[in-house]
Every structure is written in C-alpha cells, then in structure tokens.
Amino acid sequence: MAPPAGFVGLSQSAVGYRRSTSYVFDDFEVDVDRFEVCRGGQPVHVERQVFDVLVYLIAHRDRVVSKTELLDNVWGDRFVSDSAVATRIKAARRALDDDGATQRTIRTVFGRGYQFVASVTETTPSPPSAGSEGEQPPHVDQEIRFCRTRDGARIAYATVGEGPTLVKAANWMTHLEFERVSPTWRHWIEGLARGRSLLRYDERGCGLSDWNVDRWDFDVWVDDLTAVVDSAGADRFTLLGISQGAAVAVAFAVRHPARVRRLVLYGSYARGRLARADSETLRGQAAIDVELARVGWGSDDPSFRQVFTSQFLPDGTRADWDEFNELQRRTTSADNAVRFLETFATIDVTDDAPRVRCPTLVLHARDDHRVPWSAAREMATLIPHSRLVTLPSRNHILTATEPSWPLFLSELDRFVAAD
Asked: Which end of the chain is more exposed for a tag (fewer CB within 10 A), N or C?
C-alpha cells in the first residue's frame, strides 16, 4: 500500500505536509493534516515522534515495518538506539489504550518489526467550525516544513502569502495548523500575510515542533529562529516579535544586524516578570504563574487555565475564552508550560536592546493585563530611535473584532512599507 498523499519520509532535512486523509479505527481518529490523535472527539496528547511512528505504521499497515525502516524514516540521520523505537511503540499503544498484551492495534512481530493491525477507515478531515453553526472558516493555504537545529531539535515552520518577507519570531501557545481556524490567531495570520510573505514557526516544546527537548533557554530560542530563517532561505526581512518573542527578536537583530530590515514588537518586555519584579508581591505573582501551570495545565478542569485566559483576553467573549482554554492544552504539555513560564520570568535583554540599529516600532495595549504598558515603555526607551504606539485595549492578544486590531495593522503596514 502506498503512503497517504502528502506523507513524506522524515529522514529529509525539510519535510512538507499537505492536506491528506485521516485514519479512523475503533473510537480513535488520527488526523495527519492537523497532527492530532482524538478519542471520541477529544484530543489525546502524544509526543511528536510517537505521532510520526504511529502514522508511519498506519500508512504501511499492509506489511510488517522493521525497526531499521522506522529509524530511517522517523529519526533520519540522527543517531538513536534501537530502544527508542520500543519506547515510542509503547507510548503509542498507551495513547491508544492498548495494554500491549492483546496488541489489538500494534502487533510486535518478533525478529522482524511491527505492524498496525486495527481495522482502519480513511476519511477526509473537515476543519473545526470557527463561527456560527455550519459556517466554515476561511482556508489559509500553507505548507508546513521542518528544520533541524544545532542541538538536533525539529522545528516546524510555514510560509503564507506573497510579497516582502515578514518573519514572526515564535511565541508561546501556537500551533501552525490550529492557528488556521483558531479565533485567537486566524486573523493575525490573514492580517500579517496581507501583501507579504509571512514566515512563522512553532517554538520548541510547542505546537508541531519537538516537545521533548534537552535545551530550554533563551539563547537556544534565538538559535531556533536562526535555523528557521536559514532553512527557509530568508536573507533580509522585517522581524516581528510578540510577547516573549519580542525579546528573541531583539537579540536576533543584535546578533544578525545585516538580516533585519525593520523590527516590530508587540506586547513586549525587555525583562521577564521575575527579572523586573521589585517587590515581594510581584515576585509572588510570578511564582503563582508557575504553580498554576504545574497543578492545573493538563487538567480537564479549565479553571486553572482560565486564570491565564482572563489575563490574555480580559475583554474576550465566552467563545473566545473557551477556545483559548482549549488552545492552551492543545499547544503544549503541562511540564512544558512550567518550563516556559520559568524561562519567561527571567528574560533580560536590557543589554541587547540599546544595540539595536534598525528602525523599530513598539506597539502595546494601554491596559494589557498580562504585560504592563510600562514594560513596553522600558523597551522603547532602551532601543535607540524607536517609536512607541499605544493601542486602546486590555487584551494581550488583540481580537479580530476590537477597534485596536485595524489600528495595529495600519501602523504595521505603514511602518513596514516605509523606505
């Protein structure tokens, strides 16, 4: 049996995925296009390599797949031991509620390899609704690719639109596929790609990029951005940083001044919550952030995640809040959320910011509940000749319906188009 349309062996340095069928068996659905496993309509978390192993076995379910073949197609030229395959097979069975004794989904053929044995139906996936009942969200055409970083992590990136290149440094809680239909991010993609070629990627530990990584620090985030633009062939471009991605963008602009034409920062801060805390109260708030993620991120009870939602989207609708709560759980794991928040809190680019030499636009919501306006003022003060624009909003992520969204796009368009 041939692999599904769009499935490409993962041994290549950059892998393209296009829309393809999804696989349905028992009460599970494995959607190749969305990189998602669902049971009874509810997402089941699987690590990225586990997903790759599972899809490869299903795609080649007409035969036994050897360990060598899995290693070649999932890990490529990256050296790993044979035990890595067994570990991922075990995790795949656990995700499919297969105890391994019955082997009702994945059968071990001793001395030869593995075979997917459950009865599979292939269907065409339909995107989730993003509006009123029966309304389909606009489709954003994109091709997802992957690149390897210097430490071997796999980073997912995508390009949308045509025109001068705008690179968006990765920020927390993104997913290249979900963003296309997400009320939180869809209008951002459409607006940023209007008249431009938008290059964006998922941060390590998030979305479609590798979740299980060894390095987790600010410098490696800057290295990841470098790997993406190198892989995509982006030589000189406007660079956009949102939230903690703004600090990454600042550091990149300093390290690679010849590549950044203009710098746009939104919801930015030069110092993280802990780094800028000047009282026990503020230090305590930073600690609560981490603890909330530790105890409640992966829970079915959304009340813990609602704390973050109310800070990111205080003026969002109930539908916005419900979607954002689900977005949090889908885009990263509880352990990774803790690691993100711990690293965000200690960010400090106050030494880098004064060394930025390109024209810089700093935009910020006046009453941002997540990152105070004073943090943007500090960033604008540190970066020479930058311009600070204050937007009338309380949301850290601007919604499609609020007046500040067209204002943001207008300021961005005018700044990027300037000579």
From this structure: C
